[in-house]
């Protein structure tokens, strides 16, 4: 027995509202992130990730208020990502009650931000989000690159090398999303998940593509992930967090109950 | 009567979570402060901490929070709960940031987990130790009331505590090495995990702290 693998439901939030539908019984308002976070907390989620997909800058205040409201009621770790560009953005989210902040595009434009943030706030609260996509194979082996803009813009950066660099700069955790699988419900891209979990000493959260409970177990058993993140299978009411944990436990994976 | 709980604020990170968890656990009044009068007036004291130890120690000393803490512990003999880096700061020294002298209130040191770190079966373990792990209650204590032995609490740390006086260890957790997860001495209880982020078990521990008279 020992450390449990974590199940992390993800809320995609636009201007203070959860974008994807949630079919929880007993929730008055299916778009209210505070309601939904509270429900996941009660169901036994190990953490909650809050992804702000708001485009405009003015709405950042809305996000901070929502994070604050969640932090008042939900006593499990809360990670906030989306649009984090500076030390000031990180400080604002931590002050609002986030336990960890996920940096994505800003780390690509300015890798030093990760180092500065880690030194200032501690590695424990700095998550680097990596959006990886499979590109042409090299010598018959798949190569994965970092993409931005929702998987549309290549950067030419090798995903595994990038993961190592981010960990070396002080990221306390990596959130790896496969842009090939995100939204497909076909399961995690296990190749890149395994390559990155093997390459770094920090914990890795696998994300992108979960459609069935088996996928969560694969991410851990084959991909080597320390935590698994999913949105739609929980949001659409396909499965509860408890069902997901039962399944992982039946595969011999340690979970928190 | 839980009375007033003072959360000592030395400016390192957000204490909103600790304060709201204490309120949720039933605290009548929570003040987040480094003002000596407010801390002295409180019935119990929480000594939190996040981030790197060198910066924490510098701020603790600059704001004289070490004196406030020692007064609460020794002169006023109030119940005190130290959390995470707040616990680490109580020891003699930490290996973090190239070696930092800490408060020396409890003999022992804070060590790095090391690379590579493996479990008993030789599987590689990630650092930081991040997530929900099982805490063995190696000693009875009022703060464990109503919490199952082996209950999971949320940890996030890269350095761990090892005290010299083993009788002080109230809780232990295994992560490649055996970590002192909870310490108890008189009116002091210290935890490496985050009760404010540990859901039911964590809130119960905070409730127990709010009802604790400081004896064990």
UniProtKB/TrEMBL annotation, chain A:
GO molecular function, one term: imidazoleglycerol-phosphate synthase activity
Biological processes annotated in GO: L-histidine biosynthetic process
EC number: 4.3.2.10
Catalysis: reaction(s): 5-[(5-phospho-1-deoxy-D-ribulos-1-ylimino)methylamino]-1-(5-phospho-beta-D-ribosyl)imidazole-4-carboxamide + L-glutamine = D-erythro-1-(imidazol-4-yl)glycerol 3-phosphate + 5-amino-1-(5-phospho-beta-D-ribosyl)imidazole-4-carboxamide + L-glutamate + H(+)
PANTHER family in the cross-refs: IMIDAZOLE GLYCEROL PHOSPHATE SYNTHASE HISHF, IMIDAZOLE GLYCEROL PHOSPHATE SYNTHASE SUBUNIT HISF/H IGP SYNTHASE SUBUNIT HISF/H
Family: Belongs to the HisA/HisF family.
Record pathway: Amino-acid biosynthesis; L-histidine biosynthesis; L-histidine from 5-phospho-alpha-D-ribose 1-diphosphate: step 5/9
Record's subunit section: Heterodimer of HisH and HisF.
Protein task: IGPS catalyzes the conversion of PRFAR and glutamine to IGP, AICAR and glutamate. The HisF subunit catalyzes the cyclization activity that produces IGP and AICAR from PRFAR using the ammonia provided by the HisH subunit.
Location in the cell: Cytoplasm
UniProt main location, coarse: cytoplasm
The protein, known as: Imidazole glycerol phosphate synthase subunit HisF
Keyword Repeat attributed: no
TrEMBL record, chain B:
SUPFAM superfamilies: Class I glutamine amidotransferase-like (SSF52317)
Gene Ontology BP, a term: L-histidine biosynthetic process
Single annotated GO MF: imidazoleglycerol-phosphate synthase activity
Entry keyword set: Amino-acid biosynthesis, Cytoplasm, Glutamine amidotransferase, Histidine biosynthesis, Hydrolase, Lyase, Transferase
Main localisation: cytoplasm
Presence of keyword Transferase: yes
EC number of this enzyme: 4.3.2.10, 3.5.1.2
Domain of life: Bacteria
Residues covered by the Glutamine amidotransferase domain: 7-210
Residues of the active site: 84, 194, 196
Pathway per the UniProt entry: Amino-acid biosynthesis; L-histidine biosynthesis; L-histidine from 5-phospho-alpha-D-ribose 1-diphosphate: step 5/9
Pfam families, per database record: GATase
Catalysed transformations (reactions): L-glutamine + H2O = L-glutamate + NH4(+); 5-[(5-phospho-1-deoxy-D-ribulos-1-ylimino)methylamino]-1-(5-phospho-beta-D-ribosyl)imidazole-4-carboxamide + L-glutamine = D-erythro-1-(imidazol-4-yl)glycerol 3-phosphate + 5-amino-1-(5-phospho-beta-D-ribosyl)imidazole-4-carboxamide + L-glutamate + H(+)
Subcellular location as annotated: Cytoplasm
Any single Gene Ontology cellular-component annotation: cytoplasm
Subunit-structure text: Heterodimer of HisH and HisF.
Purpose of the protein: IGPS catalyzes the conversion of PRFAR and glutamine to IGP, AICAR and glutamate. The HisH subunit catalyzes the hydrolysis of glutamine to glutamate and ammonia as part of the synthesis of IGP and AICAR. The resulting ammonia molecule is channeled to the active site of HisF.
Protein's name according to its UniProt entry: Imidazole glycerol phosphate synthase subunit HisH
Organism per entry: Chromatocurvus halotolerans
Gene (name only): hisH
